[in-house]
Design brief:
ProC C-terminal domain-like fold, eight-stranded mixed β-sheet, elongated, binds NADP nicotinamide-adenine-dinucleotide phosphate
């Protein structure tokens, strides 16, 4: 495992799960630094992962080759203020998981051109089953990209996108995506209970079906469309469900929902950024 030192600015939910993944994959606690304003949060990080914790962002980034910006998006500009000068001098790899803040804005706030990787993770990272899409600016080397792959790979799979605007699409697909599947689970559980099952049984049946379908799709060479056809016998129950859902416009409903998320991601980038 690499001996790079990583400094996390912000030690909340997402940073904690990435740190947990890094520790589990063998990254030494001596090479992980975290800053957070909350002393409770610092104590928890220290006791859970034995990492070095700091109140001051300036102390945190000292000697770090990789910075992970992990505050809420609206706090990021303020968090960067005290560290922009040292970052400009030491020129580490800067990665940001803050939704909606463009790389251009981050580098403008830092005040100098640095290798920067924007990452869009998702909440299943909390249970090591996340997926992150990443975009590297032109100052990033293959080594930088490898380091980012290692970091985000500690909490799930990674993909690279070739344009920063793709991050808005990713936000609408995998960033917000867990909520779409939760919504479908809610609808299925409600239906099962309305039709006489206990809530407890309904929950098990729905969650296991979702997990099983995801595993089947992930392990199969076939596309989801083919897998769906394979479980749809002519004149059977699945076909009855799908005909009803399609005639009610499920494709259009889901697709325009995703378009709304992508559009909102673009709007937020404008609202939160320097425009
Ligand atoms: N959760 C997700 O699924 C998800 C998905 C994609 C992207 N993201 C991105 O991940 C980032 C973190 O999300 P999260 O859910 O982990 O949020 P979070 O739990 O609120 O963590 C952010 C942490 O940053 C701390 N903080 C605030 N100001 C700071 C400063 N000036 N310097 C250092 N630390 C500071 C906060 O402390 P206080 O609470 O005391 O203010 C908090 O502990 C966000 O930008 C979000 O867009 C999250």
């Amino acid at each position: 495992m690499t001996t790079n030192t990583i400094a996390f600015i912000g030690g909340g939910n997402m940073a904690s799960s990435i740190i947990g993944g890094l520790r589990a994959s063998g990254w030494s606690a001596n090479h992980i630094r975290v800053s957070d304003p909350s002393s409770n949060q610092r104590q928890k990080l220290k006791s859970d992962f034995q990492v070095q914790c700091f109140e001051s962002n300036t102390d945190c980034i000292r000697d770090a080759e990789i910075i992970v910006l992990a505050t809420k998006p609206q706090m990021l500009k303020e968090a960067l203020k005290p560290i922009s000068e040292p970052l400009s001098l030491t020129k580490p790899l800067v990665t940001s998981i803050a939704a909606g803040i463009t790389g251009t804005d981050i580098l403008k706030w830092i005040g100098s051109p640095l290798p920067l990787i924007r990452v869009m993770p998702n909440t299943p990272a909390l249970v090591n089953r996340g997926v992150s899409a990443m975009f590297a600016n032109q100052l990033c080397s293959d080594e930088h990209k490898k380091a980012a792959d290692q970091i985000m790979g500690a909490v799930g799979k990674t993909v690279w996108v070739s344009s920063e605007s793709d991050i808005d699409t990713v936000t609408g697909i995998s960033g917000s995506g867990p909520a779409y599947f939760f919504k479908l689970m809610e609808i299925m559980i409600e239906n099962a209970v309305r039709n006489g099952l206990t809530e407890e049984d309904a929950k098990i049946l729905v969650i296991e079906t979702a997990a099983g379908a995801a595993k089947l799709a992930g392990n199969s060479e076939q596309t989801p469309a083919i897998l769906r056809k394979q479980v749809t016998s002519p004149a059977g129950t699945t076909e009855a469900a799908l005909i009803s859902m399609e005639s009610s416009g499920i494709d259009q409903v889901v697709s325009s929902g995703i378009d709304a998320a992508i559009e909102r991601s673009r709007e937020l980038a404008i609202m939160l950024g320097e425009h």
